[in-house]
């Protein structure tokens, strides 16, 4: 055990640059977040200025040090986390060449097709654990190569968003292995860059940084960054992890059978595995976890609690969430035959379809607002069950416990519906700071405060609530197959609707 000190978790999300300070026991001391903004210069594009990340994190670090009344010498180690899959291109001098292309950018459909042609879709999945999707880093690199060749010729370094902050913090190029695997340039089994993928895509291996396990010390704070932030020069900076891997550490989902379910705007099902399992069709993401000798499956639903938020804002703007949700407890499971498809922003798992659309199916004059509300809660639960079914089918084994976090976890009714639909025990935990907390725990291991990540989680994380499956399990088991049949039945119609909308937009532009 080291002398008394603090651990710092840094999180670069699309909305803010967050610094979180915890003590050696895992108690949160203080946190600060500097807001960030997105740029959408064209349809389907999503970008941010990397300099804004650094400026924001400097402000947040100085704020937490001030709020805690400590100086940088009290910080034992730093963990980094943040948005995955983004592309930061630097030249030979470490200068940013263009705004970063983010995880939610959708411009690279043609490049995804090209990656499949060059490697073969099956071979790509076997190596990387994933199909080529527009969110990943590799197709973004090809897009720059094909559309901005003058910039591409100047490129010498590829980083992820949090690793640009690491570069500014330490002067070193480095990346964690959880984040690296999310580029789809990684060999999932070997936990390192894939020569075969890099050669097929004509991406120079020299552009990619060394990679490190999440709790491994990768670099140290530079003298220049110390002056900017108030940290001490030489403070260790560990590998850290991508946002979902760090979030899983932050709720203790580091062993097989313990599932992390994030019920935020989007929904994420995260399952740790003790080997590099893959879903043969690539319908699940398969990445390295943020701790050694662990991997994970991840299913992503694009509109989870976001579906309920849309529903309230659109159809019941004058109602609180409680006023909207509470009456739905009096509606029987299945909402009297009413189904809600939660594909309001397209979908990723199990249907990687940007053209998928939300829908109510089965409406009758008997349905009231409480039926609509319950159908939204149930539709999201069914959509999340899709990921659970894929995870179990891919070889995970028994699910012992589901640890739920995010805004949707505040609803007791929604938790009960999820427990019944999933037929699993749901628990909540005492940690609410998300990925930054997981990054700080990884830093604690790197500093020697804890022997390993599992011990750090056992020390810092306690269960605060439990929801067990109830009487509705069998009813939902009968209803779920009907839900699953709806997307295949409507898929072609979604394509037709998208084409119709494009024609309407074109007509409006000419008018």
Topology readout:
Blueprint: E1 6-12, E2 16-23, E3 28-35, E4 47-48, H1 50-67, E5 75-82, E6 88-90, E7 100-101, H2 109-119, H3 121-128, H4 137-147, H5 149-154, E8 157-159, H6 161-170, E9 175-176, H7 177-181, E10 186-187, E11 192-193, H8 195-201, E12 211-212, E13 217-220, H9 223-229, E14 236-238, E15 241-242, H10 243-251, E16 258-263, E17 267-273, E18 285-288, E19 295-301, H11 305-315, H12 321-325, E20 339-341, E21 359-361, H13 369-393, E22 401-405, H14 412-422, E23 426-429, H15 435-446, H16 453-460, E24 463-467, H17 473-510
Parallel strand pairs: 1-5, 5-15, 9-12, 16-22, 22-23
Antiparallel strand pairs: 1-2, 2-3, 4-7, 6-8, 10-11, 13-14, 16-17, 17-19, 18-19, 20-21, 23-24
Helix pairs in contact: 1-6, 2-3, 2-4, 10-15, 11-13, 13-14, 14-17, 15-16
